[in-house]
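From the pipeline queue, job 12 of 40. The input is one protein chain; the requested action is below.

Action: predict structure.
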Amino acid sequence: MYFIGLPLVTLFSLVIVIGIPIGLFLLCLFLLSLLFAYAVTSVVLAYGIKEKYKKDWNKWKIMLVAALVFPVLKLISAIPIIGVLIAMIIVGMAFGALILTVIPFKQSATGQTAQNQP
């Protein structure tokens, strides 16, 4: 959704005259997120490893693990065709995990997860 939806919204905003500033802002935001995608993904994966194995790591150990994950992501993306697709899926999952962490979810009375409404 992120790799398809945001560029489409940006393109639509750039077509409308009044939406040009919003479109330019979204374009810059999208390009900036692509620039730092592997770094952000490696940090999210490091936190995921920490949580999965229930480790008590400080921020420096997490950054060390992220620094070790980063070249692995680069090597995966260096594989022709399939590597780029795998890297896009991993980056998309990491961005999704970030979004799910930022947007709070609550448990409803029926036990189903529902998004908090402001």
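Job complete. Residues 35-104 form one domain.
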